[in-house]
Amino acid sequence: MNRNAIIPLRISTMFSCLRLSKSTSRRLTSKYSERRAKLMSSLPASAVVVLVGNPTTFATQKIFNPFQQNTDFLYMTGLDEPDCVAVLENLPNGQHRYTLFLEDRPHYEVRWSGPATGRELATSVFGADQAYPNSAFHPYFKQLQADKAKDRSAVMYLDPPASLVSGHLHPAHMTPSSGASHPTSSSGGSGGKPWWRAVISADAPPTRPISPLIQKMRAVKSVAEIEVMATAGRVSGESFAVAMAECPRLSTEHQLEAVLQYNFKMRGATDHAYVPVVAGGSNACILHYVNNDMQLNTGDLVLVDAGGQYGHYAADISRTFPINGRYTQPQRDLYQAVLNVQMECIDMISTSVSLDEVHHKSITLMTRELNALGFDVNEQVVARDLYFHHLGHFWLEPGTCVYVSADARFPSKYHGIGIRIEDNIVVTREGRRVLTTAAPKLVSDIESLTR
After folding, report:
1. Which of these, 249, 266, 279, 344, is most buried using a 10 Å CB contact count?
2. Which residue windows does the record flag with biased composition (Low complexity) (predicted)?
3. pLDDT single digits (tens) 306-332
4. CA 21 → CA 2, 7, 9, 149, 156, distances in Å?
5. CA-only gyration radius of the chain, Å
6. Cα separation of 164 and 186, whole Å?
7. DSSP code of 395?
8. What is the CATH number of the domain that holds 444?
9. How much is the pTM?
10. Using CA atoms, how far apart are residues 226 and 107, in angstroms rounded to an integer?
11. 303 and 431 belong to one structural domain
């Protein structure tokens, strides 16, 4: 048989098969396998890692929210389904065992919700050494604790889930309602104890958080990840350009948000990567304004902080532009001041600086720009009144992806004007690469969109 032949991988006896080439299946498996191997090799020889995926959450008893996977779980497994647990165990031979617990969906549920991955694909595509229904997690975990309790050097890494939990994994939290079950709070349930305390026995090995170690791995992106992020940046930037051009014909912040969402999706993004800020006029002076339900008034600026999610990677762009397509002179002056600061900060990004240095330099630059416009401010005033958050503290290295933003809210004759300009940057050995250049930010480029 041709090694690259298309082979069927059955995900349901009732629905058509998912078809992947052997080479594609191997690539999918190897990427996540390498991450798991890197993580486990950094831990003690008898370490156990428990990664808990997110559950389905509910807005009301029967209306569920869109599913969003635990990003650490997704990074290590590639499995984007609710109610899953991954267990990684270091073995005496220097290898590790990877066990997946996932939903074993019966036929009658498939009619309602469609097929789930199932145990066969958990091993053949997602690379698990063994796979079980998620209802088997509790007894497996209890036995694992008992075995590890005999080893004084054993360490268990576990991040207790903070969100709602569901019944297959955590049956103590299921309560009957109209013949069905629904999840309750992770801090509720039997005896008021969260599920993870109920399953960790008193003589179990000590537990440590695993998320900080995974976050450190995620901080430096691979070449493939950067290209996906570049696509997210391009898709989002092009959508911003369309939104800027459409803005003079729109009446409300909500309509502008809808234009962005439509264009994100039409270009391949799944949705907004986060709750967007669409803040017209003085609403822009609220750092995280997300109501997005007010009128857009001609003559005002609108601040938009949004980005599309593409391939599970997010763009994060901020632009501030005139609702009617033309900046007034005071708006232009202030906007150009903020833009000057942001562009100089981007030019600083390299492996020889930290984000902390960039942040403090931005305060110096903003003070210079505002005083040039006639403001009487010093760096202390700028840091206290104009900068609501810090860029960060870590040193930069090739593959690190950061956002660089400059923003300010202004008093006196500029009262009610809030400006933020933000781009996504990846650090390279040569310097930097801006991933969000498709979103216009020069005054001339923005105004040309509505001519």
Report:
1. 279
2. 177-187
3. 999 998 999 999 999 999 999 999 999
4. 10, 6, 10, 43, 37
5. 25
6. 5
7. B
8. 3.90.230.10
9. 0.84
10. 40
11. yes
